Each structure stands twice: as C-alpha cells, then as structure tokens.
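Backbone-to-sequence.
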C-alpha cells in the first residue's frame, strides 16, 4: 500500500512540476545557440568538405612522386593480302626423305595479341612535383582558414539575431507599458468627461493616442516574431519553433584602445591569413613556371608478351616475352619565349596578390575602427538614455498627478507619456546596439566570444 502511494505521489509531482521544469530547460543561452548553429550550419559543412577536397588534392600531388604502373592488351588483325605479300619460300630438311622441300612462310601473323606492363618513375622534373605538392599543402591551409572565417561569420550572425530578439522583446514590453498607462489615463479622462470637467476633444485625443499605442504594440509583436524566425533559420530549426532565450542584455565596458584592437585584428583575422597564403601560393607559382626551364628525366620499365593466340600461348621454340628498361631525358629548349611569358604572368599575379593583401589590411583597419567607434557611441548613448528614462518617468508621474488635480491638461499627460516611451525605446536600442557593437568588434578583431577582451 505504501509503495502504491509513493508511486501516486511521484506521478502527481511530475504532473504539477515536471512540465515547468521541462519548459524551463528550453531556455537557450548564447553559447548554446552558437553551438547548435555551428553543429547544423550548411556553410560549415561545405567548408569541411572543401578541406577534405584539398587534402585529397594534396595526397594526389604526393602520389606523383611514386612510380606509376599501367598495363594494356591489344589485338591487331592484318588483311590477307598484306600477310601473303610478305611470304617467302624456305627449304627445310625432311629427315624421313633425306631431302629438302619448299615451304611458303610469312613473318606476319593475321592475328596478333599483345600484353604490356609499364612502370614509369620520374627522376627529375625541375622540382615541378615538389612545388605542386607545396601548393597543394597551402591549399589545405587555406581551406582550414576559410572554415575559420565561416565560423566567425556564423557566430556574429547568431549574436546579432540573439540580441535582436532581446531588443524586440524589450521594445514589445515598452509598447505594452504604453498601452497600460494609456488605459489608466483613459479611465481618468472618461471619469472627468462624465463629470463635465473636460471637453469631448480631450477624451477623443486620449482615445486616438490609445489606438496608436495598440498599433505600435502590434508592430512590436510582429518584430519579435520576425527576429525569432531569423534566429531559427540560423539554427536550422523550424521557422515557427518556440524560442526562449536567456536575457543577457547588459552593459560591458571596453578596456582596449583602438590601436590594440587593430593589432589584434592583424594577428587574428582569417582573411589576412588567407590572402597571405595566396601570396605564398603565387610565389610558388613563379617557381613552378621556372621549372619548365629544366629538362625532365624519367625511368621507364616495360614488359611485353606477343603471340597469335588470344590467351597469349606460344609454341615450342618460340619466345614471345621481352622486356626493356629505358632512361628518358627530355628538354624543350625553344618555344618562342613561352616559358618567359609564363614566368612574367606568374610574377604579375604575385604583385596582384600583394596588392590585395595590403588592401585587405586597410579595409580591416577601417572595419575595426568603425566597430570600435560604434561601441564607444553606444556606451555614451546608454548613459544618456538611462538618465533620460529616469527623468521621463518622473515627468510623466508629475503630469499624471497634476492632471488628476486638474492643474494640467490631457495633452500634457500624453506628451509626457510619448517622451517616456521614446526614452525607454532609446535606452533599449542603445543597450542592444552596444551588445551588437561588441559582437561586431570581436569579429573585426578575429576573436571568439570567450576572448579575453570581454
């Protein structure tokens, strides 16, 4: 009996509190959101596949150093006229008769079957194979850096979407507060109108303001839904899936100077690393073009079996097998300056890569400065907006009390409420822009969320 009661109480506890526990666990933190996005992102999958492709290309380049083994099987048929034209008469000895007899034979067979196995080993290619392997290795490094850049871009997008939801929810709350305060003011205005204290125009003004506030609330709710859909898209979830995130909208002061931020960007930005690798590849491309100035040396081994039988069988006294070893040197020494032009083209591409690198560095410095100044601007706006909210709340309270005492008009109250709503909106806009500016500065510096700067 006691056991049954315990089971019943356990089920009852789960029904009462279990659902709330489960719902509470659905709240996502920023770190959890980033992890889900990284695990589900198609762009990250694509970057990983690009790394695999470049690794296989590197293995392919390494395989060119090893001997290559090939085989072939051929069948050749000659027309009878050609075979007959090649016939000649021999006089073999017949030991039974003790005399020679005439016999027509042809050195050509109507049907010829040939099987070959060839081994080719490059000995010297003007360092061409070595350079190609090094370029392939740089390709792997470039793909890894591109993946790093894709991760940083995705993290920034998730942060912007995350803080966008928090901003939209705050603005929705501001709109709700405005509606509630207008409701209270409308009750007072209706009472004053019923008593003949205020004119119909004053009551209508409050009602129009209420309608506008409700429209603003509808717009704010729609903004929340849009930001949540964007968030779900980044996490590759259903667009209409429920979203509940932890509120971390707060002020984080910055201790870094602008020069320090620019220095970090120069050290960490994957775009600089990627273009630097492109410069190295361009340098290798010059050496690759120069490799054509040198001769190539190749060792070739070949085994051949030839017979007039499809199974390559041979008769008594026949030797259908032969093999050869060939050391082949080849040097193309004149191509009407083609090699010189190839080298010149490779040098021009190197110069282009260096220009792109310098331009990337300049753009990143500008990007860091813009993000840094935006963060500083948001910091100042937060302090100003926070103070304005306190002042606007007091102004609204005073005008509301004065209106109740009929020493202020409904217009004064509505104006004070408009100022309060705008002050609250400005504060949450500044606070969200501050957090987004932090995320953009981190991306501009090429660092992650857990970096030492925060």
């Amino acid at each position: 009996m006691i056991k049954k009661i315990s089971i019943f109480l356990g089920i009852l506890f789960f029904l009462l509190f279990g659902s709330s526990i489960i719902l509470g666990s659905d709240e996502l933190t920023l770190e959890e959101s980033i992890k889900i996005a990284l695990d589900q992102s198609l762009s990250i999958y694509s970057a990983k596949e690009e790394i695999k492709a470049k690794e296989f290309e590197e293995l392919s380049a390494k395989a060119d150093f090893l001997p290559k083994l090939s085989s072939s099987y051929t069948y050749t048929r000659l027309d009878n006229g050609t075979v007959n034209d090649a016939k000649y008469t021999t006089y073999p000895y017949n030991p039974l008769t003790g005399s020679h007899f005439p016999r027509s034979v042809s050195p050509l067979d109507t049907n010829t079957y040939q099987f070959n196995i060839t081994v080719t080993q490059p000995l010297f290619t003007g360092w061409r194979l070595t350079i190609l392997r090094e370029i392939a290795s740089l390709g792997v490094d470039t793909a890894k850096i591109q993946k790093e850049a894709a991760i940083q871009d995705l993290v920034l997008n998730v942060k912007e979407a995350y803080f966008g939801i928090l901003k939209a929810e705050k603005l929705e709350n501001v709109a709700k507060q405005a509606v509630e305060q207008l409701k209270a003011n409308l009750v007072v205005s209706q009472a004053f109108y019923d008593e003949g204290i205020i004119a119909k125009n004053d009551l209508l003004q409050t009602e129009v303001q209420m309608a506008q506030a409700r429209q603003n609330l509808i717009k704010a709710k729609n903004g929340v839904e849009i930001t949540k859909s964007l968030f779900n898209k980044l996490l590759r979830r259903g667009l209409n899936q429920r979203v509940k995130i932890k509120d971390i909208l707060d002020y984080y002061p910055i201790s870094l100077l602008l020069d320090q931020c620019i220095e970090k960007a120069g050290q960490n930005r994957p775009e600089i690393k990627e273009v630097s690798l492109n410069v190295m590849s361009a340098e290798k491309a010059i050496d690759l073009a120069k490799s054509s100035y040198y001769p190539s040396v190749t060792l070739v081994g070949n085994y051949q079996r030839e017979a007039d039988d499809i199974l390559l069988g041979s008769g008594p006294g026949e030797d259908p097998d032969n093999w050869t070893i060939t050391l082949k040197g080849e040097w193309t020494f004149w191509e009407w300056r083609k090699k010189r032009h190839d080298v010149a083209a490779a040098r021009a591409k190197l110069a282009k890569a260096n220009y792109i690198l310098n331009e990337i560095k300049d753009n990143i410095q500008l990007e860091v400065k813009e993000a840094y100044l935006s963060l500083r601007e948001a910091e100042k706006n937060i302090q100003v907006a926070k103070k304005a909210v306190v002042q606007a709340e007091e102004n609204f309270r005073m005008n509301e009390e004065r209106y109740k005492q009929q020493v202020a008009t409904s217009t004064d109250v509505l104006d004070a409420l408009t100022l309060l709503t705008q002050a609250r909106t400005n504060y949450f806009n500044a606070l969200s822009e501050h957090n987004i500016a932090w995320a953009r500065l981190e991306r501009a510096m090429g660092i992650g969320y857990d970096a030492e700067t925060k």
